[in-house]
């Protein structure tokens, strides 16, 4: 509870950074969705932004042509991203290791180019224009980011509770068994392929919700939401925080986004160098991520 209470501090301590805080919450939700398949099911993905972007474009198109009410758009975006995740899971879960990485990368690139080609629908390289988001329960999305952060944080907390329930259920235990040895799990009654399809679909729903949050809090959608860079960034975030730990993606998002904001402000041309240096240091000295290192230190006998 102390961690979640601390997430309310930006309202008081740093009100000028609430827009950044909302971006951190959205990125943390996206990282949590990847952690569900990578950290617990062992599905390595370099194209997870496909579902994030699909949810973002769904929310944008809904608000532009049909309804701008945020909660309805959020639910529908999660559902459509989940349908895409379920459809692609039948192919993806049949592969492992290098083939899986290339397959997910190819899927992400295909969707990126499809959105770029369908400029009449998505706006192409110019982005989707005319996105109008209605007030959330009477609160407007302003430039200060108050409503955006409160909205993003509330959704992150609710999805986190769902993810925690999944991980600590028999289904979550079976996922960890599949991650360790997918061939032996059916022998004790756990259908590996069916479980992997389920968790992949759930992760796609969560990623789609994160993408919809980005659209609704910024009123913009661009091809960047489907880019390889976004998939790579969320993977880096998970490595920083620690995969296979529910708070790993959240902690990684906080560190990465704050470091990027500060370093890019001090050194706009070479800020990626310092991010890369941070990643190398974490991998060398904390191979299980920051939370993994802290956990090992805590358990170390005195």
How would you describe the overall organization of this protein?
With 302 residues, the protein is mostly helical. It has one domain. 70% of the residues lie in helices and 0% in strands. It has 13 helices and no strands. Helix 11 runs antiparallel to helix 12. The chain is globular and about 55 Å long. The model has no long low-confidence stretch (mean pLDDT 88).
Task: For the structure shown, list the relevant keywords.
single chain; 302 residues; mainly alpha
Briefly, what is this?
By secondary structure, the protein is mostly helical. It has 13 helices and no strands.
Write the layout of secondary structure elements.
Elements: H1 2-6, H2 18-38, H3 49-65, H4 70-92, H5 97-117, H6 119-122, H7 146-167, H8 170-180, H9 192-218, H10 228-241, H11 248-266, H12 271-285, H13 289-299
Share of helix, binned? 55-70%
Number of strands: 0
The main pleated sheet reads as: none
Tell me the quaternary state: single chain
């Amino acid at each position: 509870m102390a961690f979640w209470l601390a997430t309310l501090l930006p309202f008081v301590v740093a009100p000028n950074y609430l827009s950044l805080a909302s971006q951190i919450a959205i990125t943390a939700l996206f990282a949590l969705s990847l952690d569900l398949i990578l950290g617990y099911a062992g599905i390595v993905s370099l194209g997870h932004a496909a579902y994030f972007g699909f949810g973002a474009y769904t929310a944008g198109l809904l608000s532009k042509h049909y309804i701008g009410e945020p909660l309805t758009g959020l639910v529908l975006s999660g559902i459509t991203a989940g349908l895409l995740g379920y459809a692609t899971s039948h192919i993806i879960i049949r592969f492992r290791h290098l083939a899986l990485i290339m397959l997910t990368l190819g899927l992400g690139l295909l969707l990126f180019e499809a959105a770029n080609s369908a400029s009449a629908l998505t706006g192409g390289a110019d982005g989707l224009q005319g996105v109008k988001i209605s007030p959330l329960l009477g609160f407007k999305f302003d430039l200060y980011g108050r409503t955006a952060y409160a909205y993003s944080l509330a959704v992150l907390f609710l999805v986190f509770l769902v993810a925690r329930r999944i991980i600590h259920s028999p289904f979550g235990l079976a996922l960890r068994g599949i991650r360790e040895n997918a061939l032996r799990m059916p022998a004790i009654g756990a259908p590996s392929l069916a479980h992997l399809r389920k968790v992949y679909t759930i992760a796609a729903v969560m990623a789609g919700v994160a993408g919809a949050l980005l659209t609704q809090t910024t009123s913009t959608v661009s091809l960047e939401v489907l880019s390889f860079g976004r998939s790579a960034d969320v993977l880096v975030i998970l490595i920083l925080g620690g995969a296979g730990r529910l708070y790993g993606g959240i902690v990684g998002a906080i560190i990465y986004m704050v470091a990027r904001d500060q370093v890019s402000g001090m050194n706009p041309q070479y800020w990626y160098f310092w991010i890369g240096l941070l990643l190398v240091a974490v991998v060398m000295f904390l191979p299980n991520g920051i939370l993994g290192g802290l956990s090992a230190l805590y358990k170390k006998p005195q």
